[in-house]
Every structure is written in structure tokens, then in C-alpha cells.
């Protein structure tokens, strides 16, 4: 965790772009959060139609064809939903309870654990906020390793164990699932496991809880602006049957990724895009909000150790050479935190 902060230290975020609005007091979308109109009724109807015609695949990890299905989904969407993933459903329920407990605290309480400008852990707007002229309808809480302990003690001095126990268990289970998925990604790309080796304890992982409060006019604001995730891949739980996640696809445009009962969403991030030599797209996604109820999502980011050298794998039929320069994870994180969307093109090899 300390080392990841080093990658961010050069680009501290201004305090007013970290501390969220007290959404509980807001009756209409303020100018600061008003994005160009996102959609109207016609667009919404079209979105529903698109979701019926083409939707991201739901893959059963116990299906004998899981590997081929993962490959196809990654090439086509950079994203899929997964069932039979081994994460107990009651753990997901407990996560929802604990996340609700956190986000429904009085605003003054939550401010006690605000992220500091050069850090990644704690409460605040998404880290990508400085890249946009408008603020997002989102409050988040980032955990790395056991960073949640110091924060939980500040929030609930006498009752922090419940929150801590659930965060610890969730991260342990997510790491196991992450290791399993990593093996499947490598197999599906025909990359020998021996070429990509690291110690489990050195992995760079983070758990980020997102809360999107119910919004008086969802067409006017953005829950989470379009972005790609930085690390290898992300495992996302969307809570309470509330839609909001959308993925950008050539052709149809923004396609909703509606929650599928018991499924987790998995999306390709920038580092897997590089390792796959651009065979797997890093999924561009965003989250929109609704006016009925608060929506929660939990994103687990799975990344290699920060000193790991990331190189495109080029030993496959039809490969015309590496599309990217090879670089350390921490170098890429630093480029991403400075240039966001441009980061991938900056590490692209020129023809
Ligand atoms: C490990 C990380 C990935 C993340 C930046 C972070 O340091 C912690 C929060 C993560 C998050 C969650 C919301 C979307 C996102 C783009 C952001 O602003 O913060 C991701 C970051 C990422 O993938 O780069
Ligand atoms: O809330 C969602 O559905 C998306 C969250 C996300 O993209 C992220 O945390 O990186
Ligand atoms: Fe994301």
C-alpha cells in the first residue's frame, strides 16, 4: 500500500476534489454535478432494446467450455459475468450490510476517514475526479491490505470488529478467485504460467466500495465517468439488483450490464490489455445513477506486484510484434495517474 502511494505522490489531488458533497441534504442536482444531458426517454428505451439484443455473456466457471467462453467474451467485450465463482452469497449480503453502515453514517463522521491528497485509501470522490470538469454522483471508500482497520477504529471506536471481519474475509476470497481467473486468462491466451510468476503476498490489490446515492435527476449527472481500470482485471459485485454499470462497445455504444442473480462482473483492465498484446480490450465503462434508491458496488482490483515488468506476450499465430513497450507496474500506474485515458496510447509502440 505504501508503495502504491509512491506512484500517486507526484500527483496530489486537491482537497475539494476529494471530499464529497453531503448527498443526504441535496434536493436537486447542483451546477457542480450537472453533466451534459446523458440520455432522454428515447435513449433509455433504446438501451433496454440493446440490452435484449446483445448483452455481455454470463459464464459458468464449472462449465467445461469456460475457457473458450472467457476468451470469446474478453475479445468481444473485455467483460463478462461469472457464476459458480465460489464466493458465498451470504458474504455478499454481509458486504452490503457493512457498506450501508459506512455510507449511511452522518457526513461529519465519514469525513474522519477522508483520503489524503497523495494517498489512495479512505473515503472520497473517485481518484479520477480531477480529469473532469464536473463532479460525480458518487462517494467511495478504498481499502488496500488492512488499511480498513485504522479507518474502522475511527468510525466505530467500540464496534469496529464487524466491519473489519467482513472486509478481511471478502479480500481473502477475492484474492483466491482472482488467482483462479488469472490462471484462466493466461491459459485462454496460451501464455505459459511460468512466464508470469509472482508471490501471492506481493500482489497489488485494492477493494473499492462505491455508493451512488439516489439522485433527483439521473439524466443530468454521472455516477462514475467513463474510464478503464488500471490493473489486470476487476471483479465487481453490483448490489441489490440495481442497474447502473454500462460498457462501451463499438457499434451499439453504451450497453447496460444488468445484474444477473448471484453473478460477479469481471472486466479486463489496462495491464491485461498490454500483456495480451491488445487481443483483449481494456473495457471502457461508466456508471449511471437512478432516482429510486442508493446503489452500491464493490470493485476488487487484481494487479501484479508493483515491481513486476509488464510485457506484451507475442508468441501466438498471426502476431506482428509487440504493440506496447514493456514497463514496470509502478511506472504504468504513475503514467495513468498523470494522463488517464491517454496512458495506453503513451505506452503504445509506434509503427
Ligand atoms: C487501486 C486503485 C484502482 C483505482 C485507483 C486505486 O488506487 C484505488 C481506487 C480505484 C478506482 C475506483 C473507481 C474507478 C477508478 C478509475 C478510480 O478513480 O479509483 C479506479 C482506479 C483505477 O482502476 O485506476
Ligand atoms: O459501480 C459500477 O458499476 C462500476 C464501478 C467501477 O467501474 C469501478 O469501481 O472501477
Ligand atoms: Fe471501473
UniProtKB/TrEMBL annotation:
Signal peptide (from-to): none
Xref: InterPro entries: DIOX_N, IPNS-like_FE2OG_OXY, IPNS-like_sf, Iron_ascorbate_oxido_reductase, Oxoglu/Fe-dep_dioxygenase_dom
Keywords tagged on the record: Dioxygenase, Iron, Metal-binding, Oxidoreductase
Enzyme class: oxidoreductase
E.C. designation(s): 1.14.11.15
Family, as annotated: Belongs to the iron/ascorbate-dependent oxidoreductase family. GA3OX subfamily.
Protein name, entry field: gibberellin 3beta-dioxygenase
Organism listed in the record: Spinacia oleracea
The gene coding this protein: LOC110792471
Amino acid at each position: 500500500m505504501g508503495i502504491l502511494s509512491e506512484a500517486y505522490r507526484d500527483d496530489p489531488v486537491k482537497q475539494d476534489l476529494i471530499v464529497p458533497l453531503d448527498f443526504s441534504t441535496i434536493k436537486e442536482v447542483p451546477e457542480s454535478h450537472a453533466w451534459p444531458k446523458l440520455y432522454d426517454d428515447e435513449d433509455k428505451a433504446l438501451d433496454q432494446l440493446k440490452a435484449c439484443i446483445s448483452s455481455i455473456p454470463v459464464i459458468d466457471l464449472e462449465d467445461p467450455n469456460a475457457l473458450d467462453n472467457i476468451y470469446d467474451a474478453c475479445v468481444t467485450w473485455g467483460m463478462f459475468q461469472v457464476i459458480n465463482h465460489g464466493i458465498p452469497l451470504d458474504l455478499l449480503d454481509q458486504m452490503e450490510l457493512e457498506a450501508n453502515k459506512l455510507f449511511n453514517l452522518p457526513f461529519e463522521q465519514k469525513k474522519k476517514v477522508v483520503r489524503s491528497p497523495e494517498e489512495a485509501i479512505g473515503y472520497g470522490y473517485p481518484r479520477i475526479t480531477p480529469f473532469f470538469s464536473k463532479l460525480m454522483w458518487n462517494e467511495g471508500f478504498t481499502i488496500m491490505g488492512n488499511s480498513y482497520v485504522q479507518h474502522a477504529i475511527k468510525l466505530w471506536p467500540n464496534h469496529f470488529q464487524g466491519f473489519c471481519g467482513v472486509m478481511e474475509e471478502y479480500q481473502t476470497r477475492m484474492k483466491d478467485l482472482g488467482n483462479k481467473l488469472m490462471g484462466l486468462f493466461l491459459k485462454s491466451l496460451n501464455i505459459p504460467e511460468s512466464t508470469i510468476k509472482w508471490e501471492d503476498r506481493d500482489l497489488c490489490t485494492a477493494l473499492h466500495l462505491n455508493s451512488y446515492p439516489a439522485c433527483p435527476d439521473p439524466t443530468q449527472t454521472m455516477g462514475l465517468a467513463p474510464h478503464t481500470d488500471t490493473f489486470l482485471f476487476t471483479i465487481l459485485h453490483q448490489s441489490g439488483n440495481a442497474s447502473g454499470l454500462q460498457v462501451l462497445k463499438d457499434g451499439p455504444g453504451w450497453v447496460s450490464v444488468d445484474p444477473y442473480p448471484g453473478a460477479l462482473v469481471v472486466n479486463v483492465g489496462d495491464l491485461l490489455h498490454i500483456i495480451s498484446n491488445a487481443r483483449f480490450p481494456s473495457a471502457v465503462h461508466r456508471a449511471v445513477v437512478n432516482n429510486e434508491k442508493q446503489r452500491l458496488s464493490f470493485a476488487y482490483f487484481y494487479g501484479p506486484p508493483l515491481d513486476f515488468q509488464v510485457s506484451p506476450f507475442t508468441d501466438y499465430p498471426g502476431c506482428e510484434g509487440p504493440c506496447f513497450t514493456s514497463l514496470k507496474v509502478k511506472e504504468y500506474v504513475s503514467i495513468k495517474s498523470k494522463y488517464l485515458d491517454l496512458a495506453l496510447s503513451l505506452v503504445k509502440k509506434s509503427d
